[in-house]
Amino acid sequence: MNGISHRQAIKLIDQRLDGLLKESQLLLLEEHLRSCDSCRAYAAQMDLLPARLQNEFHARWDERPGASQKIIEHVTTKARKFPMGKRISSGLKLVAGAAALVVAALFINLVLSQIQNVSTAASEGVEQKPTPEPTQISSPDGLVAFVSIQNGNSEIHTMHTDGSGVTNLTNSPAEDHDPVWSPDGRRIAFVSERDGNENIYVMNGDGNDLIRLTEDPASDMIPVWSPDGTKIAYTSQDPNENISSIYIVDSTGQNRRRLSDDVPGPVLVWPEAWSPDGQYFFFHINRQILKVNVSSGETTPMTPQEDIPSQFVLTKDGSKLSYLDLCTQNPSGFCNRVKTVQEDGTGAEEMATLQLQQVCKSEDPSSTNGTNHYELIKWSPDRTKILFAFYCEENGGLFYIANADGSEFKPLTDYPILYESSGFDWSPDSQFVIFSSALDNAQSDTPYLLDIPATLQNPSLRPTPLNTSAAQISFFAWQPLP
Amino acid sequence: MDYRLIELCRVGDSSAIENFVRTYQQDIHRLALSILDDSGEADDATQEALLSALRALDSFHGTSSLKTWLYSIAVNVCRNRLQRHRRQERLTKILGDILRIRSTPSVEEAAIQNESNAALWRVIHSMNEKHRIPVVLRYYHDLSVPEIASVLQLPEGTVHSRLNTARRQLHDILKEGRL
Does B21 touch chain A (CB under 8 A)? Predict the structure, then answer.
């Protein structure tokens, strides 16, 4: 046997497959292979791989149809306008620059004249009044956390609600997603795969003070803060065993314990799942909503056996639970009734039936056979409205809105919103919704703000695009007001 | 490299843009198909990648080949699409399982169900994206390690290491006689 070890030989075999060997290394390897059966066998097996892979890939893809002819037409039409867009943008920048100079000159002039006036007033002995605050034409308060995907890697960012001040909070090569603000708006719980599988982490709103809350091999997801911010409930799913349960952990990472039995398949929790006093947690398991006493572990079924409840929300005072019920006459579809039940699980009452057949022309979005479907449903934080995002094949995404009890179900806008499953969130004051879309030929996943009361008055009102440096934005979480 | 064509595209010349698209669309489509494994998705990704490239032509300085630069843009478009799909599929699956509704099979699941059930493909398909894409670039698009490094904007050593990991995984299964 010559001078290189088995380990070195294996390394050289691997390098050879990528054409990275120098002539001298190749000679050393060949010499080693002549006298080493195991390395020769390894090399022979590895040499087979490229041909097998090439055969598999060519068999799989070569016969597939090539690029659609429509691509040339679409790309040419759109790309022709790019230089014009650049010129307009440069022109606007020039105009904006000139305007800024004029404004600056006027401002300096104004300040100088104010100084003159003040000095004149002072000299005349007139009482000085404080200068009034300038009128703020501002975006809504707070930050918005969101996921931005760059090069296939998702990171959690925050930005102001006008799109400025984009900050990457996670900066990790692994996936980071599902940001959720603590009720006081200071901390963010999120899911990260940085330690190999999905675990729950908490960080400050600026990305500092990172704490890992869970360390198990299961997939820990959907963190939900308790109202006082001291605890986090989450679902834990073991993909191998295909069982799930709900866990609770202090937001410091202490006192992790299970709240529910293990059940086959997933369990689901929704954002507003804690009672206001933090004593009870509500979750969805085996086609039932259950209430669990967080201290004793005692569970109470909340919904009648015959119902198939879906998403739910508690009233602000915790006295009632509203939920969407899958109609029994339509067992293969999504819910289309809004029902309420008392906090002790009694007195289930139907509030309204949603007229889903009006949403898509081609097919009911509650059908599971086609491509039309519900995307997302969220009650407003003040619990006065429900916003529905649908997807219809013929015209893309649509927002529908209803009162919290399901009444007055209607389209929010009179144009398709081109919503793309990227999530939306209400502002804490329930006045705005943030979502991403590609309206008006904007880059895909541009964030927009929609003024809900104004849009209810005028369904033609267009949302405001946010000018932001982040790309591929989705899954928004609006910071609660302190 | 046709610098004249690039210049004309930059100023919005329709026939140059059409020529550019005709020249590169099949290569980009083939790349997108090999990552997304769905013809419709590959069409959308090709369109998105070509538009992104034409929009960003000012930033192409000719330090790499135009094809490598285009591949780099297209790979990013495809990875972002995969990422978005995975998130949507996960949420849909959770909701679907709970309500016992039938969820539409994912692009990749559908491909597996409808077409090749080959064991080799199943192993490739189950690979992490960071290992699968270099394998596809190396053995379907015949790119060298330096070219893959340029497309994925990674050090060559990292590309080699990812290819190695993928090959070892396949080798182990080959050795066990499962392929």
Answer: yes
